Every structure is written in structure tokens, then in C-alpha cells.
Amino acid sequence: MAVEEKAVEFNIKPMDQFEISNLFGGDVIHWYSFTNASLWMGLAVLSVILLLVVGTRKRAIVPSRTQSIAEMMYGFVYKMIEDVAGKEGLKFFPYIFTLFTFILFSNFLGLLPMSFTPTTHFAVTVSLALAVFLSVTFLGFYRNGTKFLGLFWVSSAPLALRPVLAIIELISYFVRPVSHSIRLAGNVMAGHAVIKVFAGFAGALGIWAALPIVSITAVFGLEVLVAAIQAYVFTILTCVYLNDALHPGH
Amino acid sequence: MEGNIAEMGQYIGAGLASIGMGGAGIGVGNVAGSFLSGALRNPAAAGAQTATLFIGIAFAEALGIFSFLVALLLMFAV
Known about the structure:
The complex is a heterodimer.
Chain A: H1 2-9, H2 36-55, H3 65-85, H4 93-110, H5 122-144, H6 162-205, H7 210-246
Helix pairs in contact in A: 2-3, 2-4, 3-4, 3-7, 4-7, 5-6, 5-7, 6-7
Chain B: H1 5-41, H2 43-46, H3 50-77
Helix pairs in contact in B: 1-3
């Protein structure tokens, strides 16, 4: 009996925070249901719009704080695309900037207590990654025609090795959307689950709860970093894939 | 000693899958360590390579995330 009592006290449910629920009643979730995921995605988009619209309203020569944040974000993504994908990649700046800001803001908003992080769901990240994968593949064939297949035919390798390398390159090409999406969702989800597990320790330890609370604070600091880095990584990998589509061949 | 043997297998499997994260740790540490040793030899060239650093870390880390995913699947989806 004592064992069972302990089990109730030690109540850790790290995955409950990722549950999707209807905000306005009803248990069944339809495609038109307004869920907590819709709410937080909408909030992320709204905060991006708010930051950029308010930031660029005055357009002062000496920028205000809001304006410099907006300008820094813009310049950061602009330089990233220019460095990785070259001048031609800048045509796709709006798309990549949208991806970056959306992921960044949903990650950051998800760090608020009691909130929900859309990027912990594979449904969201797979949609983002598949959109990148499909548009990059389409763009590669549109821009280069059959020359795009040169991406898989490593011309610098010895001829005997090339078919083997082609198979490996082909596999690694099609694994891209998988790893692209799982990296983002997995990182963010793992971090949030870790915080919840430590919170469960705090609930079970009574007077010693200070120990896990200190660790939660530390892990939370790490999570803020991870939220920014994962948005950065997703964006820069998009740029790398875009570069492959614009300049195929090795 | 009673219980469900399938559940036991799930927990053992999830634990074994977590070993993969150690590999990701070695990989990420290797990338960051090599970057640092290179960057300290030639600090002027280091700034331009931060993007490469993060791409390398992301690739190394993705495989660790896969093992985390396998553990999650065993715990909650199987």
C-alpha cells in the first residue's frame, strides 16, 4: 500500500502540457475548431505584426528600442541569406523572414507559464519543413532543369564510387524534411518536458523543493537560448537547402 | 513481482534508446571543441564560421533527437 501512495504523490505527467484542447467547449476537434494551438499561433503572428508595424512606423534616423529590434531582426536574416545562399537567395527573403519570426515568436511565447507551444507539435513543424522541402525541390528543377540532378551525381568522386554516392545523397536528400522538422519539435518538446519533470520533483520533495526549483530556473535559462537557437537553425538550414537549389553540383 | 512484461520491455527499450543521446553529446562537443580550438588559433576568421558551427551542431544533434523520439514513442505511442 505504501508503494501505491508514493506513486500518487510522485505525480509527474510531463506530456500533458502538449495536449490540444478546444477553447470553446466540445471534446471533438474539427478542422475549424479554435484550439489552444490556434490561439498561440495567432498570438505569435500578432506579436510579429505588432513588433514590425510599431517598429517601422516612425522610421527615425536615431531608432527607438522597438525600431532597433525590428531592424536587427531584419538585418540578421538578410545577412544570413546573403552569406549562405548568395545574392540570388535574397529573392526569397520574405518567406525565410516569415519562417524565422514565426518560429522565434512561437518558441518565446511558449516559454510563458501556462502557455502552449505550437512548435512542439510535429503537425506544425512537419508542415513548415515540407513546405520548405517542396518549394526548394520545385525551385531547383524550375531554375536548373535536369541539371538539378547533379546534386546527386558527385562529379568530383571516382566514377566507380558515384552510383553508391548517388544513393547516399538521394537518401540524405529525402531525410531532410524529416530531420528538419523533428529537430525543431524534438528540441523544444524535450526542453519543456524536462522543466515539467523537475516541477514534478519539486512537488514530491516537500521542504527540499528549493533544489529542483533552482534547477528549473537554470533549465529555463537554457530553454530561452534553445528557443532562439532552434529558430536560427531552422532558418539557416532553409538557406542551405535554398543554396543547393540555386547552385546545384559539388 | 507482478506486472506486464510488454510494459517492462517498453521501459527498458526507452532507457536503451536514451544511450543514443550520449553519442549526440560526443558529436556536439566535438564540433564545438574543434571550432573553439580553431577559433583561438585564428580569431579573425572565427566570426565568419559561426553559421557553419551552428549547422554542424544541428546535424550532430538531430541524431540525438531521433533517439529521444524513439524513447518517446516507446513510452507513449507503442
